[in-house]
């Protein structure tokens, strides 16, 4: 069976690996240029910062624990009980997961067309990427809805998915010139900052006395500031950071990053969303059994197994 997996986040990559290991063909199609989706890392001033999912919880005995154990190149990811240290950034895991899997990056799927030969996958300009036997969609619900809406037989599923809302996240990445390498991470009770994470806790060394931190704004503040300029965002966040830290801190550099769909506010039952015999399967956080990344990863495994078990 030939399957297109839309999205190279954790659920899509788990699905693709499962299909390939059971002898099927899987092509992962990802609109951005990188792997990992919301498990995201970026380089700033010689430092690596996780600007999406901040910390990966790896429950012992679970699917993620197996993955980390199997894939982690020596020393790049360390598993200590349930905690993972990522000296080279969160995308190490997705990068290791694509070994043996075909991936098309920088390609947005715009439409799905079901025909006699199978399901045709169309790109933005209308070009056909290929015809496959089945599709697994792992995009966040609002983007999955757009794709389902192009399939004549799926309006009820598109309507159900429309009900899944997401909180946006405005993130500020900053290099702080502070003299306290062991400085904590914080979750303040009030103000626009939801959390500040000192990335050196993940096994990353400060560079030139500068400590990389990732700051997430609360959902309401993220929604309010989503379309504001970076200067406006920083004008609110840097004074709030001073308050959180209890003193002002020289800021060596900053970057602002926005996620329109960061975390779900609700979830649907994956089994009910994917009736038996469906050739377009929904996976990803909108249909996870719970809020953890382990739950999200399992939706990819479920989707692959639903397809290859017939
Ligand atoms: C800032 C932030 C903080 C978070 N904090 C937590 C937390 O504390 N705990 C927690 O459990 N979770 C958290 N999450 C959520 C967690 O990261 C996600 O649930 C998980 O990574 C989702 O994985 P996924 O594979 O379902 O989707 P994604 O990682 O979103 O992957 C889907 C992929 O599909 C691609 N795509 C979409 N549409 C198309 C298209 N038409 N064509 C091709 N590709 C397409 C997207 O580019 C994306 O790469 C956080 C997320 C963010 C952004």
Structural summary, described in words:
The protein is an alpha/beta fold. It has two domains: 2-164 and 265-308, FAD/NAD(P)-binding domain; 167-264, Polyamine Oxidase, Chain A, domain 2 (Alpha-Beta Complex), CATH 3.90.660. 28% of the residues lie in helices and 29% in strands. It has nine helices and 16 strands. The protein has helices spanning 10-21, 63-71, 92-97, 141-148, 155-162, 219-225, 230-245, 270-273, 293-308; strands at residues 2-6, 25-29, 41-44, 47-50, 78-80, 83-85, 102-104, 109-115, 118-123, 128-132, 134-137, 166-176, 193-198, 211-217, 251-264, 280-282. It has a five-stranded parallel β-sheet with strand order 7-2-1-11-16, with helices on one face. A four-stranded antiparallel β-sheet has the order 13-14-12-15. A three-stranded antiparallel β-sheet has the order 8-9-10. The radius of gyration is 20 Å and the shape is globular. The N and C termini lie close together (10 Å). Flavin-adenine dinucleotide (FAD) binds next to helix 1, helix 4, strand 12, strand 15 and helix 9.
